[in-house]
Amino acid sequence: MRRGAFHYLIVPGWHGSPEDHWQSHWQRTLANSRRIEQADWMQPQRPDWVTELHRGIVAASAPVVLIAHSLGCPTVAHWVAQASPEALRCVEGVLLVAPADVERPGCPEPLRNFAPLPLVPLPFPSVLVGSGNDPAASADRARAMGEAWGSEVTVLSGVGHINVESGHHRWEEGLAFLHRLQTLIGEQAQRRA
Question: Does residue 3 sit in helix, strand or coil?
């Protein structure tokens, strides 16, 4: 499936994604992409974040592929749990990267209002990429989230939170996971035809 056939929505996590974050780089290089902006990146409120995601999805002019990082992943899960069937049909798939476990011991206080985390299958193809040493989610927890969401799961070794602090600026290797998601979307479309 052609990349230009989608509208990519970048869904950042807590604190947003700075200019040198891979999500910002991808936004600059992927055609038909834009970022979900939040009013408050420091004190996220689940209802507000989910509302902004919903606005971005329904306003898109083409089928949507979500590219979520960290707290963006629980935001997607909460949106799915409350979205209408019509809104859900706007999304073709989601790439979930370094999902934040908002139920973990020691979870930062500003993220706790995203718990409990909906752990039900997503109604579209998804690929989850976790890390064996991510402070925001253990490898086991990332796998459990991905399995509950029906995602194809990969846990990378020693890549941290897959953000600027862990050395992931352009993260061109990550585009292989986006390509894999697009393949899954194409396979699903063929089954429906």
Answer: helix
